[in-house]
Amino acid sequence: MFLLLLILLVLFTPINVVVNYSDGLNVHIIIFGLKIKIPTRVKKKSRKNHDKNYKQENNTKKKKNSNIISFGLGIIKIGVKTFIEILKGIKIKEIVLKVKVSGSDAAKTALLYAKFSSVIYPFFGGVISNAELESYDINVSPDFLGDKTTFFLNFHFYGTVFQILKSFLYFIKEYNKIIDK
Questions:
Q1: Is a pLDDT exceeding 90 seen at residue 20?
Q2: Bridging pattern class, strands 150-160 and 91-101
Q3: Is residue 84 packed enough to be buried (19+ CB in 10 Å), middle (13-18) or exposed (0-12)?
Q4: 80 confidence band (pLDDT: 50, 70, 90)
């Protein structure tokens, strides 16, 4: 009986989750006033391949840019309907998304800017209109002088452990459906 009460207490304990992506992914969980950092994986470069990597730097810039774009568009393709289901279980305190879109020249930058704007603004419009939201700042801008697309994301939400686990499992299920297609 005590174990059951303990499990219920843990499942229905309110927690805050802060996801921040700028140069790397940072996730913090705040429970009972304690801030816990969730470790994320970081790829380390080996010294052995340093010269080889230096020669291929121009090619990897293009690959990194396309990886960021495909990751961002893959997440967005899940759609507003999935996020409406997720938003039923959590309360969003803050969303900040700043994207500076860059391409190899002005024409490619303009095309990428149009693609990002046509996906991000309607998506977050649906999220904002269907969520209990305290503050938000969504901004997509072209960077004609830059050489790569940059993202800054700060996503702060809260709910109970049960609600957040249920929401993340639903998200993973829907994301895997898209990946499998």
A1: no
A2: antiparallel
A3: middle
A4: low
User: In terms of residues, how long is the chain?
Assistant: 181
Buried b (16+ CB within 10 A) or exposed e, 28-41: eeeeeeeeeeeeee
Distance CA 157, CA 164 (A): 9
CB 91 within 8 A of CB 132: yes
The pair of three-digit structure tokens given for residue 160, joined into one six-digit string: 């109970």
Residue 81 burial by CB count (10 A; 0-12/13-18/19+): exposed, middle or buried? Answer: exposed
The residue type of 27 is V
Query: Residue 140: which of 170, 119, 156, 126 has the closest Cα?
Result: 119
Query: pTM for the complete prediction?
Result: 0.64
29 vs 131: which has the higher pLDDT? 29
d(C-alpha 87, C-alpha 81), whole Å: 10
According to the model, what pLDDT value does residue 157 have? 86
The first and second tokens of residue 70, run together, are 């495909």
Instruction: For residue 118, report the phi and psi dihedrals to the nearest 5 degrees.
Output: -70, -15
Per the rule left: phi > 0, alpha: psi between -120 and 50, beta: everything else, 5 is alpha
155 token code pair: 């996503």
For residue 56, the 8-state DSSP code is T
Residues 6+ positions from 47 with CB-CB distance below 8 Å: none
